[in-house]
Amino acid sequence: MVVGVPKVLIIAGDAVEAQEIFYPYWRLKEEGIEVHVAAPSK
Questions:
Q1: What secondary structure letter does DSSP report for 18?
Q2: What is the pTM of this model?
Q3: CA-to-CA distance for 16 and 24, rounded, in angstroms?
Q4: Amino acid 16: pLDDT
Q5: In sequence order, what E strands does 1-42 have?
Q6: Fewer CB in a 10 Å sphere around the end CB: N or C, the chain?
Q7: 24 Cβ partners below 8 Å, 6+ apart?
Q8: In this predicted model, what pLDDT tens digit does every residue of 3-42 receive, in sequence order?
Q9: Can you give the pLDDT at residue 21?
């Protein structure tokens, strides 16, 4: 069985602060996890 890189999707709403996204984003990246962020465009 081949194990790939773990992946995480962070879903952000309109009222989210940047720090609420960037802190977990970078902590997960440090652990080698592939991170994607889904947020509404402005």
A1: H
A2: 0.75
A3: 13
A4: 85
A5: 7-11, 34-38
A6: N
A7: 10
A8: 788 999 999 998 888 899 999 999 999 999 999 999 998 6
A9: 92
Residue carrying structure tokens 């592939």:
34
pLDDT for position 23 = 95
Q: How far is CA 41 from CA 4, 13, 26, 29, in A?
A: 30, 10, 21, 23
What HEC string does the chain produce?
CCCCCCEEEEECCCCCCHHHHHHHHHHHHHCCCEEEEECCCC
The β-bridge partners of 7 are: 34
Name 22's bridge partners: none
Distance CA 9, CA 1 (A): 24
